[in-house]
Design goal:
Rossmann fold
Length: 126
């Protein structure tokens, strides 16, 4: 089972993911956890580091940005297995994508999310 931490300050994201991954959750393919901020994500990871396989993080969040969160993840959680990090943003600009890659992101997705593409990427990782 792949444990996925979704980090996004928009509260409707949780319902959207639970709806779109209903079958995969029921079939025990994926387990989803949610954090509404970078700070909350780091607290969660501190207690569940070895369980989380994949992190999907928004970039633009109040407080700690997704870029700052990514920097913390790559610095503070180096013990294997290192989680795969996919950054999500409404802005598909090359600068953001380049910054995400330089900070250690494994992939970069734009909003609105294409859940068919996302599911394929997740199945490829599983």
């Amino acid at each position: 089972m792949m444990k996925i931490l979704v980090v996004d300050d928009e509260l409707d994201v949780k319902d959207l993911f639970l709806q779109r991954f209903r079958r995969e959750i029921r079939n025990a393919e994926f387990q989803l956890a949610f954090a509404n901020s970078g700070e909350e994500a780091l607290k969660y990871l501190a207690g569940h580091q070895s369980e989380v396989i994949l992190i999907l993080s928004d970039i633009n969040m109040p407080g700690m940005s997704g870029f700052e969160l990514l920097r913390h993840i790559r610095t503070d959680f180096q013990a294997p297995p290192s989680p795969v990090v996919m950054m999500i943003t409404a802005y598909g600009d090359p600068d953001s994508q380049q910054q995400a890659v330089e900070l250690g992101a494994n992939d970069f997705l734009t909003k609105p999310l294409d859940f068919t593409v996302l599911k394929q990427k997740l199945h490829d990782l599983a």
